[in-house]
Amino acid sequence: MSRYRGPRFKKTRRLGALPGLTRKKYAPGIESRTPPRSGKKSQYCIRLEEKQKLRFHYGLTERQLLHYVRIAGKAKGSTGQVLLQLLEMRLDNILFRLGMASTIPGARQLVNHRHILVNGRIVDIPSYRCKPRDIITTRDEQKSRALIQNSLDSSPHRNRKWKLPRPKHLILDSSQYKGVVNQIIDREWVGLKIKELLVVEYYSRQI
């Protein structure tokens, strides 16, 4: 299954707030064209929705998410927490959490277009796994810095409406267009309300 490129509002209306996908939120008072489902949700449906939240928030394909679940399953510690750490330490997500991109798809575009450096070297792979002490900067070009500045000016970290705190494992020096990764992210600072155990249960037969 390929990466989702359809209407983003449609996904937030069904799954709730997905800040990595879009800043737009579905207003409950607005009537939906799709009538609400009646009856109690099955356990499969609940697990599926949690999995979809994770997938659409981080902008992953089905194959990519399954790959991360398998890696997390082989690591020490809680599979769910390791999975979230793997996803949160992706370069595109780090740029988003720093406020250097307004959404994760926007961050992915910055990386793909070679605007971003990690430790002084251009990295054009959005899934690049950042590590503690990594230094993330932008190219010393007017266009690159203008793109980052535009995102910083409209960052949800500066918007009281969103109340999205910058995680403690990241430091941003906006004047230098530079971000620093201090450590692996703690569970409490993950930028999405998610029940990761249900995601692991969803994939349990495939890992």
Automatic annotation (TrEMBL):
GO terms for cellular component: chloroplast; small ribosomal subunit. The keyword DNA repair does not apply. It is found in: Plastid, Chloroplast. One of its GO terms (biological process) is ribosomal small subunit biogenesis. GO terms for molecular function: rRNA binding; structural constituent of ribosome. Residues 89-153 form the RNA-binding S4 domain. Residues 3-88 form the Small ribosomal subunit protein uS4 N-terminal domain. It comes from the Eukaryota. The keyword Metal-binding does not apply. Keywords: Chloroplast, Plastid, Ribonucleoprotein, Ribosomal protein, RNA-binding, rRNA-binding. Part of the 30S ribosomal subunit. Contacts protein S5. The interaction surface between S4 and S5 is involved in control of translational fidelity. With S5 and S12 plays an important role in translational accuracy. One of the primary rRNA binding proteins, it binds directly to 16S rRNA where it nucleates assembly of the body of the 30S subunit. This is Small ribosomal subunit protein uS4c. It comes from Epimedium acuminatum.
